[in-house]
Hints:
The protein is of the alpha/beta class. The protein folds into 2 domains: 40-150 and 285-305, Rossmann fold, CATH 3.40.50.2300; 152-282, Response regulator (Rossmann fold, 3-Layer(aba) Sandwich), CATH 3.40.50. It has helices at 2-32, 51-66, 84-96, 113-121, 135-141, 152-164, 183-199, 213-226, 238-250, 266-274, 285-302, 318-329; strands at 40-47, 72-78, 101-104, 125-129, 147-149, 173-177, 203-208, 232-235, 258-260, 279-282, 309-310, 314-317.
Amino acid sequence: METQWTARFGTIALTWAVVMIVALTAACRRDSSRDDAPPRVALIMKSLANEFFKTMADGAQQHQRQHAGDYELVVNGIKDERDLARQIGLVEEMIAARVEAIVIAPADSKALAPVLKRAQDAGIVVVNIDNKLDESVLKELEIEIPFVGPDNRKGAKLVGDHLAGVLPDGAAVAILEGIPTAFNSQQRRAGFEEAMKAAGHPVVTVQSGQWETAIANQVAAAILNEHPRIGAILCCNDNMALGALAAVKSAGKTEQVKIVGFDNIEAVRQAVVRGEIVATADQHADRLAVFGIEYALEILKAGGSPKDKETPVDLITRETLEAASTADSQGGSSSP
């Protein structure tokens, strides 16, 4: 009996060993099949329902078509900028797919860091765009992830300084921030506050519009009711600026309450031209993901210890848009 069990066990062990060898050989073949293939770069966005991020994705796809031999592009995004679990899930899916690089605009500066560490541990190059990951969390996790993007505080201060030039002396203002734990929202709020303090405009309230137009509309309406004498609402993105503008129109206060935003989406550009919104900031959405992708490809090729890279941010006003339109009609550059 013992001899029969020994023989049977030996047969089972041999069969299992053969199965494992076949599986490992297949895996090696799958990996080796990519040896000569261009690297796969996963672009993981926030809400693709937001025009800003759609523009970013479109710019990346156009860049990939122009460099089809250099890399493959996988574009993913969440429907709601607050859906952190789904964005974490997208990163996990890209880890499982064994992409070579992940370029991500994280919906939250802290919550995405652990899964991005897992991506790095799996040998994936990670580049952070748009919303900077929290430095204290990165330090705690003992990882370095380069940030490629604009100085949001600087951009918001440009917008705030311009607004201060058209406000009555001492006019009180309100700020609509995005998701409070998002670094870019924190920096834009800080830039607005710095500009208002320098110009002597008290900030009477700071409330979150969660980056969303409908929520910002409700919050702005409540602010106008609670602070009927305010002179401006400074919004940390353009979606919220549109919501605030609708609230101001509904309250019949378009002459009294000035609006500014951040992102330079088409609807806000048109509102700036009409004089309904004073200014916004352009962080060049069509190029922002491209900057990150190009840096990821550079890291894949050269290795080394990547560092943060600052990208442009520009003030957009009626004057800059009109100047750009004139230059465009004369055959010049259309960039503001």
